[in-house]
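Support case: user asked for a sample of complex input and structure output to validate their parser. Sending the pair below.
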Amino acid sequence: MQVPLSWYLVVAAALFCIGLYGVLSRRNAIGILMGVELMLNAVNVNLIAFWRYVEVVQASVAGQVFAIIVITVAAAEAAVGLALIIAIYRSRRTVDVTEADQLKL
Amino acid sequence: MSVQHVVFIILSAIALIGALGVVLNRRLFRSALFLVVSFVGVAGFYILLEAELLAMIQLLVYVGAIAILIIFAIMLSRQAMAADDKVLNEQWVLGGLAAVVLCAFLIYILTRVNWPVVEAAVPANSIQRLGESLVNPNGFVLPFEVASVLLLVALVGAVIIAREK
Amino acid sequence: MDYVLNLWVRLATDVYQLFLGWGLPEWGAKLIIDFIIILILVILGVLAVIVLTPMERKVIARMQDRPGPNRAWPYGLSQAFADAIKMLTKEMILPRHADRLIYTAAPILIVIPALMIYAVLPFGPQAADAELKLGATNLNVGVLYFVALGSVASIAILMAGWGSNNKFALLGAFRVVNQLLAYEVPMILSLLAVVVLTGTMATQRIVEVQSIPYLIVMPIAALTFLASAMAELNRSPFDLLEAESELVAGYQVEYGGMKFAMFYIAEYVNILSTSILFSALFLGGYKFFGLEKVAPVLAPFIVLGKAVSVFFFMLWIRGTFPRIRLDQLVGLAWKFLVPLSLVNLVLAALVVKLSANNWVQAGLLLLGNLITVAVTFLIMSLVERRAKSGGSVVMSEAQNLTPAAER
């Protein structure tokens, strides 16, 4: 426990913001999805850091359970998101989000 | 500057450089590979935080499944394996500004709060506790079951959406 | 005499004391010893290639009634060196318009997880004093570590397929990753049955707890794991992708010389580590009727002996069965192995709850496994019979798996 907790939180915040930049500024839908995965990873790092530094003394595993559920949700969301992207690619031949601006297929 | 500090700095360099590679790279396949690098760095963080089960789950699920899924999607949506010419959309300046401001803000706050850190050792049977809490009615059985239903729904949904008509 | 019997542990302790005597701090001495152990394990991995390659070719040749390689001295046993020299002298090419970084990094990245698995393999019993044991580490999640690293290799394969700038390499990579992902699930489920029975994921502890080898207690789990491991290793009869007569060499088609040698090395390193893991989980690891308590120095050799016999079994299967097609292969995983290993897992969980006595558990599990095998045969014969009499479309899958002569 020699590394202070704030270091972990700072790294997680940096990861989150890099992911946020990826989501906000990329054109490719898969690139946006990768940014979202980075953000979820940052959240997980935060959760586990807090579990280790604050919660372990209470003999509780809530932090790890939360992180496992977040990983599960990330997997489900990546699967459905990529299925959507492939479906859009099939009908429009593009995965550029700036070109997917019509409701008509 | 103990060993833990050095390891932490190396791991955060891996994770952050991987993340930067994801969002700044022009070629999408290289972004996916940098994403894998970032995942491995985060798995290293979990090992440093003495949550080995979660590190292995991270490697197994993120690197072994989600990253492969992303790479498959990249390969299935490329035409003639050409590199894209436009990577950023019109609002990239504002997006970058928002990310930088948020990062500065978060770092400012996170380094100034007095966190209620408690020094304690991780119990030796933490994996057994984790397993028991996931099926304990007073524990986390409800999120566990809901996550299973979520996975089933996502599985069925992904198959239906991506099916050839 | 006692020194020789406990040779490895005594040697390690003496070297440790030697380093301390030279004035190194404790953590420094420990670090150096850890590096030496890592070096030994890596050399073991490379030794796997040198020993297993000529063994495979000679054994399969004998099964096919031919002499096998016999030019490299002596009697063809140094064939690996001949292969290495040949591959070192080949030209290093780079396909046109290929992504140089990805093309070069893929063979390197495929060897790394293969070698990392050796860290959790148990090579000997825990010494009576302190934490000295034979093996690199006793990770709490050893079994999961093995599965996680197996799935990391898929990324390197996709990199190889993409970096070759060759549509056929890409297709080959897709198919290999399809096969790998399909067989991860039965592998995890059969390993989970072992973990449920033992109560821990640490490989060292699983070997310690096995009073009866789990091959006899849970043959379904053992055979499912063996089948899944053979599919993960791309061994026959699941080796459609490296079948030299079909698809050229799949995702390795643009690789030549030392880069191809890296894929080759990774495969054999993986084979040895999987064999050692199989013998640790299902055959009793370093135990040999109490020999390892009397002479712990022999424990690594017992482990290697069991691993080589598992490898011989794999060669036996390679020399006997023809290859199966990719869709039959993936169908076998999802439609046959997954339900079977699920039933086994439920059975193991039930038996662990029913009684705590080792022998009663073993007996009940063996009975349950035999009943499951009988029921499975019954179901499959029913399915075949219905398919032969021109049944519904659903049953035609069984026709795909039966040999053409019986249809």
